[in-house]
Amino acid sequence: MVHLPRQLHSSNRNQKKNVLIFCLQPEGDQSYMPDIPMAFCLALEKKGCSVTMASFKRNDDLKIKERDGRVYVKYEERKFKLPDLDERNKDYEYFKSLIDERIKNPQNESFKIEEDNGERYIVFPAVEQDIDELDGAIGWNASRQPLRQLLEKNDRIVPLNTPDSIEVSWDKIKFHECMKAAGISIPVTVCLHSQDGYDEDRITQELYEGLTQKGVTLPFMIKANVGVGGTDVYEVDTLKKALDIIRKLIQSGKGVVVQEKIEPLAENPEWIRLVVADGKVIGARRCIGKAGAFPDKMDKIIDHIVAPANRMLHDRIEPYKPTTKEKRVAIATTRALGLRVSGIDIMKNSGNPVALEAADCPALKPHMRLGQYGIVDKAVKGFVKEMIRNKESVKQKISTFVARVKTRSDRVYNR
After folding, report:
1. CA-based nearest residue to 358, from 288, 280, 321, 306
2. Cα-Cα-Cα-Cα dihedral sign, residues 343, 345, 348, 354
3. DSSP string of 128-155?
4. Whole-number Cα distances in Å, 46 to 102, 370, 376
5. Most CB atoms closer than 10 Å: which of 84, 156, 184, 340?
6. CA distance 234 to 299
């Protein structure tokens, strides 16, 4: 168990900032590798931060304990088996750079590289962290709930992205409402809520009225309001199929969005992913999928615009130079959602860029494969600056003021 030393907070720019990075390991996914959290860790350490790495398998695994009037967050040790790497592996150089960087600096114990019976493991040590000592927190591939718990205990912590902004970006109904309020172009959308349960007459009427008023015609897309990686996304060409899928989703407790099908996507599945950090586009790639990649069977998950940059990634990706309009859409979308760092999927509809969706923890590794190696450093730059200039608590301000007055008094007295 690593007990982190207590540090006094101050506005001194040279003082190390304490950052907690935590990620959610999907249940049953033994191949999950926290590579981007590791890259964030190394980037923050280079900027003089002290980093704690933590992982958990369920959203409720954030263990908060109180002792001697202080509040601690506790994590057990986690081990991740390194994948077999050789020069034919497309991630070889990327993983090798992370491992080599840690081997060069073994004194930083945020994560370690260990060997056991010829296998290599990435190890997050067991940690007990005083929440009052934290300056920043990054929740990567994780529920917003653990981050919310931390901020409730210490609202001085600077998050990379806030829990509220993460929630809006995850929920497609809330995303649609946010974009509509901000005047940002997205595919024409009809939203069906699930809070009242499934009532066939009500849902049929709402769907018919929404499609008629907004001019959405068959075929169209149906998506669950919450889902990642292209899950629960369907293309339908009859109202009967549409109502069957909507019933299935609402009865499972999910809301539904019905969206127009952007025709060029079916013939030439192509879109762009722009990564935005602190109001600037710091990475861009073009994602190209297979023509005719959208089956219409309701029991199949399809590769559609819900998560194109991830689901179609292995077909082909290319470096991309975004236009000024595309940059404006990505930056405006990120700002409207309240995100500091985001990945915005965009494609053109009738020649104009439209925002398809936003990711609060965008995949950065594909950008590194394309040579955009500085993307992680750029992503944390503003985050570190905010921690440095973050306001002191009232108690700290009083202490600082008293110290300054005492110093001035001593100078006058010594004269």
Report:
1. 306
2. negative
3. EEEGGG--EEEEESS-HHHHHHHHHH-T
4. 12, 23, 12
5. 340
6. 9
pLDDT score recorded for residue 9: 38
Q: In whole angstroms, what is the distance from residue 397 CA to residue 401 CA? A: 6
- What pLDDT is stored for residue 166 in this prediction? 94
Q: Where are the alpha helices (DSSP H) in 81-218?
A: 92-104, 144-153, 163-170, 172-182, 200-214
CATH 3.40.50 holds for 2-160: yes
Average predicted confidence (pLDDT) for the chain: 83
**Given pLDDT bands bounded at 50, 70 and 90, which one contains residue 92?**
confident
Cα→Cα distances 400→9, 155, 385, 386, 393, Å: 11, 20, 21, 20, 10
C-alpha torsion sign, points 189, 193, 199, 201: negative
Confidence (pTM): 0.84
Architecture of domain 167-376: 2-Layer Sandwich (3.30)
Residue ranges of the domains in the chain?
Answer: 2-160, 167-376
Question: CA-based Rg of the chain, rounded to a whole angstrom?
Answer: 24
| Whole-angstrom distance, CA of residue 209 vs CA of residue 197 | 19
Averaged pLDDT, 56-69? 78
Continuous H helices in 24-119: 35-46, 92-104
Highest mean pLDDT range out of 70-84, 165-179, 306-320? 165-179
